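Why does this matter for the project? Reviewers at the last site visit asked to see concrete outputs rather than summary tables. In response, this paragraph embeds two records directly. Each consists of the residue sequence and, immediately after it, the corresponding structure tokens. Nothing has been edited or filtered.
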Amino acid sequence: MAVRLFEDKEHANLYWKYRISPSEELIEKVLQFHRSNKNSANDLAVDVGCGSGQGTLLLAPHFTRVVGTDISPAQLEMGRKHVNVSNISYRESPAEELPFEDGSVDLVTTMSAFHWFDSSRFLQEAHRVLKPHGCLAILNYTMNMELSYGDCSETLNHICKEVGIITVAFLTFQCLSAV
């Protein structure tokens, strides 16, 4: 189960003001990778551990529908208050129990939140909800992130080490389904 921090409204307000969001350049890299698969779609993106929605907002221009999920009602309330975009909605949900049907999501992102999750359970859940040819993007500010997921572990960790301080791991459904 994900760690439950950042629960109160005062902290959520500070999070909205000071949380570092990914750059538009980094989001564009994620989108380029996602679009590089000719069978990809832009119907539904899910931003897991979205906090107050700064990263969720960056996805909105590129998808028909974007859903930010978080375990903190206060964080989600802050997102609803500050992000008034018609194709964005928010759902309270742990990262390891996403409220989406199997194979229904085109892009799953987690931006500076992966380190709070039960990583193995989250990766299984991302695998479950992603469409064939879907994409998972893990954006995290760390140099020591290790990923473990079946036969993909070595490849995932190579990508993480190659990118450096801002770790960006992209997994396609093909990699996950090989497990």
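We now turn to the second protein, recorded in exactly the same manner.
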Amino acid sequence: MASSTETSSQPERPPRPNLAFRQLRGRRSPAEFAALVRRAAREIDERVSCDARYIGRVEAGEIRCPNYAYERVFLHMFPGRTLADLGFAPRSSVRGRAARTAVEAPSALGTTETRRVCEPYDTQDPYGTHEPYENDPLNHEESDVLRRAFMTGGSVTMAAATLGPLGLATDAAAAARPLRRAGTPEAAALEEAVRRIRLLDDRHGADGLYRRAAAPLRAAYALLDAGATRQTTADRLHSGTGELAISVGWLAHDSGRFDDARSHYAEALATARMTGDPGLEAHAFCNTAFLARDAGRPREAVRAAQAAQRVARSLSSPRLMSLLALREAGGWAGLADRTGCEQALVRAQALFERGHSEADPEWMSFYGEAELEGLEAQCWSTLGDWRRASRHARRAAHLQDPHFSRNIALYTAELADDLAREGHPDEAAAAALRVLDLLTQVQSSRIQTMLAGTARVLLPHRRASGVSEFLDRHAAMPRVGRA
């Protein structure tokens, strides 16, 4: 039986669905509406990490009142309306509750400050606190720890340092303390850790983040060993741990640590099969296929992508099936099977055109038209069709949401390499110079490796416009380490 201390962190009453907000979304999917929120934020120079899950939590009534950044964005989106018109509770009705919950629900996951991020009405957005926090009378609504940690200003070094205070205890003293059985706050903190890591990767790339991200994963495994107060919580912990393993695996993958990535993906796959979670299993197979392609094992990439598609058929997400078809296409391209690759690409395009679904996984927020074009560009590049590859890479870079800095750098690097091999050194140099500018914000061994290949191709063309400048800047660029 759960003790009173284990259950006191639960909401005092069941959340009421926010029907007004749901009506404003209309026929758009949560992912589509989240994209509109991010676009509106950029219009007023705000930064929010809104995704489909956040929209779902608002509509379910879990977020009773947004933080100030989201408030400004929502009022900008719907001029003339108040927060009450949007279905939110008055700020005065929720103030103080976070502090009580933090005191009443001690957790193995961290300090009372870090536990406040699990509060249902908090947006848990790292960029949503632009006004001076110290003078804010409602500072209980947002964790000071998270605010200090995530106001990174674009520095990847600072971004790496933020992975400690995710609400998951990672220091030696905390690890030495016995863990009590996990409850809802721990499951929520684990899910938030996954979102934070994905957000940081989108903005900064994997290098410098991987080592930091491994610590929350160790804490997550410790939570699994400790058990949970309820079966629903145990299911969330297993799913969250699997997703966190995939996220950490991706950071290893993108920073060139293929053996580490393979191990993390295998752990996620084992967790998925142990708990009968088809969504997690499809995700693990999806990333395994991508890794196999990059590691020079194209036949394994095809098999893993096909396994993912078998598992994912029950999930009713055409967009997921589209991405998995692209993973298969990448494997066929690595095998120099042009027919197999083209068939998979046609299937991926047809599935993509079916549009979004309520069943689309949260982790697929990156998969839009830009990613579709970028992955197709990689297939044609592998097959040696540089003209087609450069055409799709150009579209990918043009279509990419500015929120995904890393992907813009990736697609532009792909474009530079394809143009160089196609025989357009001046255009290739111009694209490569844009990538060098982006690398002040993004650190990715994958992108650096691509640029190094482009530099080798352009060496004989130093007299072409821009090539000498690119080669000199590239030679002077510090290389990313694996510390």
